[in-house]
Amino acid sequence: MIRTTLVTHLLAIAVVSAAVVPCNAQQSPTKKKTRNAARVATSEKTIEPTASLATPSLQEDFPAICIGPGGNPLVAHIAYDTTADTVRLAELTADGLVPRAILSEPGNVYQPSLAADGRGTVWCVWSQMQGTRWNLLCRTIIDGKPGDRIVSLTDSSANDIFPTAKTDRRGRVWVAWQSFDRGHGDIFVKCYDPKAGEWSDAIRVTDHPAGDWEPRLAFDGDDRALILFDSYRSGNFDVFLAKVSLDGPVELSPRAASKRYEARASAATSPDGKTLWVAYEDGPRRWGKDLGSEWRKVGGGLHYDRHLYLARVDLPTGRITKIADVTRLTPGLMTTLGRPDSSSICLPEVAVDRQGDPWVFYRFGKSFWNVALTKYDVANGTWSKPQTLGNSSYCQDRRIAATLGPDGRIYAVWPSDGRTSKQQRISAIHLVRIDPASSLPQADPSLLATEQKRIGEAFTPVNDTPERDRADHHRWTFDDREYTLYFGDFHRHTDFSRCRTSDDGCIVEHFRYAYDACGLDYLSTTDHSDAGKVYHEYEWWQTQKLADMFHNPDFFLAFYAYEREQGWPYGHRNVIYLHRGGPIIYIKRANYAASRWATPLPPQDGALQGELPPWQLWELLRKTGRRVITMEHTPGGGMGTDWSVYKEIDSQIETLVEIYQGSRNSYEGVGAPQPAVARQGGPMEFGRFNAGVYQNALRLGHKLGAFASSDHRSTNVSFGGTYVKKFDREGVFEAMDARRTIAATDKIFMEFSCNGQMLGSIFETSQKPTMKVAIRGTAPIKVVTILRNEATIRRFTPTDGPQFDATFTDEDPIVGENRYYVRVEQNDGNMGWTSPVWVTYRP
Predict the structure, then answer these.
(1) Where are the beta strands (DSSP E) in 68-132?
(2) DSSP secondary structure string, 143-199?
(3) Going by C-beta distance under 8 Å and a sequence separation of 6 or more, which residues neighbour residue 527?
(4) Which residue, among 758, 781, 776, has the nearest Cα to 835 in the 3D structure?
(5) Cα(389)–Cα(375) distance, rounded to whole angstroms?
(6) Quick count: other Cβ atoms within 10 Å of Cβ 27?
(7) How far apart are CA 800 and CA 782, in angstroms?
(8) Phi-psi region of 331 (alpha: psi -120 to 50; beta: other; left: phi over 0)
(9) Distance in angstroms (rounded) separating the CA atoms of residues 482 and 153
(10) What is the DSSP string of 38-55?
(11) Other C-beta atoms within 10 Å of 525: how many?
(12) What CA–CA distance (Å, rounded) separates 754 from 747?
C-alpha cells in the first residue's frame, strides 16, 4: 500500500466586482425568438459535431472523455432505458462514435469519468446507488474490452458523488469526489499507481462544518494533484484549490475570497505545468439569502445574474490574474430589450492546447441552453468570438467534457436532445474535433474594455437579522414526549419547469442552497407536471435520482415531489411522495392517459372538461397504494382555489396549505398583515380570489394546517416547520399528517397547545379552552395574536425582546367548534403562523 502524507493548502480564487446590466422580461421566449437569441449571443457560424451517438430507445446522457491507448477518444456515458441507468462505452473511429461495451450493472448511476493510466489501462469511475447509499465504482478497459469485474473504490456509510478522474504525467490515475460522510460535503481523493498495481487509501482533503462541493482535477509540473472545489466555509461559495502529494506536504499561502458567489469551476494546466487556467461561475452577493424586494422586482433566484470568469494561476508563485468575464463576449446574454437579463451562463470546461492557450466551453441560454466555445490567445491577449456548437441544446446541468488529443486537436463531448423548446426529447451524445490552428473570428475587444456594476450590487436586504445556526433545533417536551422542530421547503422549481428557468437553476443548485446557504433540514424540488410542457418521465427519473443522492439520514432529508398547476378555482398543488416511484398524475386527462402510469380514468367530471380535478387526483393517488401528501399553494390568486368548490378535502392525503409563499405573499386572510419580505407589503385584498384565502378554508370546515414554501426565485424567506418524533422521512410525513406544523419567514420557534393538545389537534372538551404559547424569535417580537374562528381574540405586545410566553383562557368560547391559531410579528418584519387547534366546546 502506498504511504501517504498530506497537508492541505487552500487557495481562494479572488474575484473582482460585478456589474449592472440591462435585462429581458422573464416570460419563456417563443421557439423562433429563442433560436435567434442563441445566434445573437455568439457568432453566426455554428461548429457542427464531428460524430454523434443516438439510440432511439435510450436517453444517452452525462458523457465523459479521455484518449485511449491507441490514440482514439473514448466516451463513457449514462444510458437510461425507462427502467434503469447503465454506464456505457463508445469509441471514436473512422465510422463515428461506435458503442463498445456496457460497463455497469443496471441501476441509478451518476457522472461517469474516464482516465487512462501509464500502462494503457483505461479506468471508468462512476457513482452508483447500492441499497440506500451511493458509492464509487470503477471498471477497467484493456485492449478495448471491459475488465472481468466491477471494483468498489468507496464503501462508506455516506453518499459518495461527483467523481472526477484524471491521469498525471507519471501515468497515475487520480480520482477526487465529494462525500457526505460527516453530514456536510467534504472532498476526498485517491490514486492508482500502475507500477504498484494498487490504489492508495482514500485521502481526506477537507474537513469543515460547511459544505465543500464538486471537485475537479488538474496537475502541476511536479505531478501534484490540484483539486479545485468550492466551499461555503466563509458564509458564501468560494472556489478553492488544494494541492495534494503522495510524497509529502506542499505549502501554499491562502488568498482572500470575495463575498460573491464563485463555484462550479473547471481547470487545466499549461504544457509546462506552471500555469493553471481556472474557469468558474460567478453570481451575486448574498447568493441564496433574502435579497429584498428591490432585487425581486428585477428577477432573483438561484441562477440569476450568473457570469463566467477565466483566471490564471501562476503555480510557482501562487499569483492570480483575472483574465476576463467571458459573459461579456456573449452580448446577447447581457442586453436584451433594454432590461436586465439573467445572464444565464454556466458549467465551464477548460482545455489547454499545445501552445498553452485555454479554450473555454460553456452552456448559455435563456429558456434552454446551448454549448459555446471561445479561445484566449495568451501571446496576443485576444479572444476569439464565441462559436455555438451544433445540436447542443439541453438543460443547465449537462456538462461538457474536453481533452487534448495526441494529434494536438481538442476533443469535446456533450449531450443534447435537440430541443427547440423546453420539452424533453431523446438525448444523444455528440463529439467535436477542433484543430487549434484553424482560423476563428476575433471577438470585439470593446466588449471587455469597461466592466459595469452588476445587478443588485446596491440593493440591501429587508433586514440584517442574524440567522440561526443550522444545528440550532428547537425541542419541545410535551406530554412526556420530546418533539424536535425541523424546517424545510416543499416547493422549489428547477430548469425542468417551463417558466423562470434561467432564474431558478438546476436541481444540484437547489440542494447546495438547502444544505448550506439556507440551512434547511429537508427539501423537495417540485417541477410543473403539464403547464407549457409535459414533465417527461426521464426528467422525473432524474429528479427522484438526485433526491436519493442528496438524501442524508440524520442530517438532511430529500423528498420526491412535483407540482400540478391547475388554475382557479381548483388550485395548484404539490404532490409529495414518501417513497420513490410514484406516478405523475397530469392535469390533462389525455396526458395522463398517454403516460406510462395510466390507469382507468374516473368518469369525465362535468365541472372541468378535459382535466382531472383535485378529487379525481386524490382518487387516483389512493389507487396507487402509495403514501403521499398534497398541498395547495397561493390559494388567494389565479393559481389558487375557491374552497367552496370542494364538498370535502381528502383528509388522509391533504392536511396542509401554504399560508405563505416566499415568491409572492401571505394568503392568511383578506386584510391580514403581510410580512416585510412579501412581494407586496401591508394588508391585502385578493379581489375576485378572496374565496381562496386560508381563513376561508377554515371557515368552510376544511381541517388544514399551516406551512410555508418558496416557489420560483424566492430564497431564504420561507420556512415550513414540522414537529417530529423522529427525524426521518416517515417522521416528517407523520408530523404533516398530524398538522404539527408552523409557517414562518425566518426560523421562528413557536409552541402552541390547548387543553393538553398540541397544535394541529382536533378534539372535544367540556372545559374552557386554555392555550399556552411560547415564542423564541429571531428578533424582538412586536405582536403576538391569538385568533378564534378567524378573528382576533387576544393580542399581546411583548417587551422582552425575541422571547414570549403566555397562558390564555377563552372565558367565553362558542358552543360548538372553536378554531384557534397564533400569528407572530417581529420588529424586523418577519412573521410566523401556527397550525390551528380545532376545539369543539360542549359544556
Answers:
(1) 73-80, 85-93, 96-102, 109-116, 122-130
(2) TTEE-SS-EES---SS-EEEEEEEE-TTS-EEEEEEEEEESEEEEEEEEEETTTTEE
(3) 493, 494, 496, 497, 535, 539, 543, 562, 563
(4) 758
(5) 14
(6) 10
(7) 10
(8) alpha
(9) 40
(10) HHHHS-S-EE--SEEE--
(11) 28
(12) 23
Q: How far apart are CA 582 and CA 562, in angstroms?
A: 10
Work out whether the CA dihedral 276, 288, 176, 543 comes out positive or negative: negative
Look-up of cell digits 370546515: 701
Residue 580 CA: distances (Å) to CA of 205, 320, 540, 617? 33, 46, 10, 18
Distance CA 623, CA 454 (A): 52
Task: Please return the burial class of 632, using the count of CB atoms within 10 Å of its CB with bins 0-12, 13-18 and 19+.
Answer: buried
Question: What pLDDT does residue 707 have?
Answer: 98
Residue 253, burial from CB neighbour count under 10 angstroms (0-12, 13-18, 19+): exposed
Strand ranges for 662-756 from DSSP E: 705-709, 719-724, 741-744, 749-754
Question: Which amino acid, 750?
Answer: M
Could you give phi then psi for residue 661, rounded to 5 degrees?
-130, 125
- Cell digits of residue 791: 378573528
- Residues whose CB is less than 8 angstroms from the CB of residue 148 and which lie 6 or more positions away in sequence, other chains included: none
Q: Which helix (H) or strand (E) holds 543?
A: helix 537-550
The three three-digit cell numbers of residue 320, written as one number? 492570480
Which of 843, 656, 646, 824 shows the shortest CA–CA distance to 749? 824
Alpha carbon of 130 to those of 138, 202, 548, 556: distances in Å? Answer: 14, 19, 11, 19
Residue 538 has which C-alpha cell? 426521464
In order of 340, 366, 677, the CA distances from 26 in angstroms are 10, 9, 21
Strands 410-416 and 401-404: what pairing? antiparallel
Beta-sheet strand order (sheet of 656-661): 526-528, 560-565, 572-577, 628-632, 656-661, 705-709
Pairing of strands 160-167, 173-182: antiparallel
Cis geometry, peptide bond prior to residue 569 (ω within 30 degrees of 0)? yes
Which residues, including other chains, have CB under 8 Å from residue 446's CB and lie 6 or more apart? Answer: none
Mean pLDDT in order along the chain per 10 residues (843 residues): 35 34 28 36 74 97 97 98 98 97 98 97 98 97 95 94 97 97 94 96 91 95 91 93 77 57 96 95 89 66 90 92 90 48 82 98 90 96 95 96 97 97 97 93 88 65 82 97 98 92 91 97 97 96 98 97 96 97 97 96 87 96 97 93 94 97 95 90 90 97 97 94 98 98 98 98 98 98 98 96 98 98 96 98 97
Whether the Cβ atoms of residue 816 and residue 841 lie closer than 8 Å to each other: yes
Question: Alpha helix locations (H) across 285-403?
Answer: 292-298, 331-334
Residue type, 202: A
Triad 674, 677, 678: Cα angle to 5° = 50
In our burial notation (b when 16+ CB lie closer than 10 A, e otherwise), range 540-555 reads bbbbbbbbbbbbbeeb
Alpha carbon 746 to its chain centroid, in Å, reads 20
